[in-house]
Amino acid sequence: MTPPASAPASAPAYDVAGVRSQFPVLATTVRGKRLAFLDTAASAQRPLAVIEAVDRYERTSHANVHRGVYQLSQKATDAFEGAREKLRRFIGAASSREVIFTRGTTESINLVAQSWGRRLGPGDEILITWMEHHANIVPWQMLCERTGATLKVAPIDRRGELDLEAFRALLTPRTRIASFIQISNALGTVLPVREMIAAAKAVGALTLVDGAQAISHQRIDVQSLGCDFYVFSGHKLYGPTGIGVLWGREALLREMPPWQGGGDMIRTVSFSGSTWNDLPWKFEAGTPHISGAIGLGAAVDWLETIGIDAVQAHEQSLLTQATAALREIPGLRLIGEAADKGPVISFVMDGVHPHDLGTILDAEGVAVRAGHHCAMPVMAFFDVPATARASFGCYSDEADIAQLVAALRHAHEVFN
Amino acid sequence: MDLKDLYRDVILDHNKRPRNFGRLDPCDTAADGNNPLCGDQLTVTLRLEGDRVEDIRFEGRGCAISTASASLMTEAVKGMDEAAIQALYARVHDALTAAADAPPPEGLGKLAALAGVREFPARVKCASLSWHTLNAALAHRAQNAAGQGPGAGLDPTPIAAVSTE
Ligand SMILES: Cc1ncc(COP(=O)(O)O)c(C=O)c1O
Questions:
Q1: B152 domain-assigned
Q2: Largest CB tally within 10 Å, which of A149, A243, A259, B87?
Q3: A40 CA to middle of ligand 1, Å?
Q4: ipTM given for this complex
């Protein structure tokens, strides 16, 4: 991603040491070595602000929400709904009725596939890309199996970029939804989502953007993006696990049937039938992850104090540095060389399996992901069983990169 | 922790130059093993004399630990009968999963080189994949033999029997 042009040239230097001091885990050691945590794309670490907000809630405000008439329940409800409002503001949604709490990206996509997807039938088409995370493939495959709809896949090229022309060509008047990642977790590619959304709109298709990898790295404004659904996970945004968001256009969410039934999502229940609660609760059956939502609210507040534009500029500069340093390592090959990338670098090393690489790096205190990154079609496309992947967050620093580079050189020595 | 405990020279050598690599054709039994998490994938083919392993080969692709383990295994089990293989596997398994500070295994010969994985629990299944696959191949043969009377031909088609995830 190009750093925002609006960042003033005189912006104060990014205080990465100050940011790091907010993350207790970064002070821990691994096998006696400094921890270089380079797996933020899988899950980000939590700052004190989040840890403490959750702790405070547990100590002083817990009760079930939307139920009790007593003060404590009101306190919990206010904190929970307050978190929803923070998330609304963070993504620029028009109304908090459009912000549905889920368990995460995966559940958000399944919700859309199962609720909105009910209207599909034979002949209808769903368009995704070759770069999708399994979470944006399998729910659609399951939907196609149930409804007789067809799943189409837009191809990518050797650099890991989407073939936008092919994507356009695969859109037809029968395309009901186009669902795609904003940033690839396996390759780092930033997709041209604005163009994709416009093209889908032109044929009357809805769009779902999987923002799991984008949400913590750049400012998101769902209204200016113009998509119909936007989904992400709290744990990739410095918040807790088990909480995430489905944003959808209110008119669309209104038309959609509930997907899970139970408490909270109903207005009335009788044996002759039940009626549904208003948005967003219509889609939130059962007791929600209250502390998770509160922790996520605290995470976006905290991120705003650092400034997401400043974080983006910092991460992009690390990406540039690390990419240059990795290119110098003998036998190392980058997988995913798109012109526009998020702070994710996938790579393989000649003669060293990614899992051996992961273990050798682990022994040096460097935490990277080694595997298929829940993107098996991407691995198949590049004809590799797996890749190693280093990814950065707001707390990543040059020492992390130096430690990674030294460990990779060591791996090359061990195996050659 | 010294990396050399995991990537001993024996392992690096067997990874680079795997022994008994390839496929026996014809064979008496075979099995495919894969570890979907890592993408490790291998096929073990066997020629048997009664229940004694007359010859064994493996092919596939995987990490150094799984490749070296398969290579070392083929060397170790050649000539053994099934009971001896099971006994050996039980000891290998113990060595792989022992506590990090347990004394080094004895009497395992070159297979003892794999014991370093005990410090890396995530890698134990890499080292055991070939053994699971060998077991599946032997079980496959036993099933075929039971289902078809004495003297009947065996179906050597590999079975996708094991997944270590
Ligand atoms: C692009 C993308 N989509 C979806 C997911 C799934 O997220 P979760 O497991 O939090 O539901 C991930 C997480 O790895 C991801 O990177």
A1: no
A2: A243
A3: 12
A4: 0.83
